[in-house]
Amino acid sequence: MTRLIEQLTKLPGIGEKTAARLAFHVLRADRQYAQALADALVAVKDETRLCSLCFALTESDPCPICTDPQRSAETICVVEEPADLLAVERADGFRGRYHVLHGTLAPLEGIGPDELKIQPLLARLGGQEVREVILATNPTAEGEATALYLAKLLKPLGIRVTRIAHGIPVGGDLEYADVMTVGRALEGRREM
Length: 192
Prior knowledge:
The chain has 192 residues and is of the alpha/beta class. The chain folds into 2 domains: 2-47, Orthogonal Bundle (Helicase, Ruva Protein, domain 3), CATH 1.10.8; 51-167, Dna Topoisomerase Vi A Subunit, Chain: A, domain 2, CATH 3.40.1360.10. It has 8 helices and 6 strands; from the N terminus they run αααββαβαβαβαβα.
């Protein structure tokens, strides 16, 4: 149990109490469940790789999104991480393709353009009929810097470059929103 709890605490966001609760859950479950969990953990390491086109996580290369004929190749949504791609997919409103950067520009941490999947994006844009690139990086200092850098690179290519809107979340209260969020919400307003 101690070994299992120790390993579970290495997962992001899992403290010792949560790790202990998970370990006891596995202990109480039948052997089949524990084996299925172990198999799934090993399989994700053995079978998951990056798509050679969009750099999303996939079991097949190219990934199902890149090979889906129902998705538009004219629009590419650029995201920071594979988890961001999943968030956009869950919204179920985007029917284009993706490009995953695997990070953001962070000069203080030694992360420049060469550490991200920017060159493959540029190569991809040169070989396809892409009309729009949506920059869907997070509204952090690094995400904004990355979006600005990409916009400067892409605009001379004659491709429409757009940025996702930022603002007040559904169900949020203006009085509790920070100044930056309210400002972005006002900038991103649209006609009704």
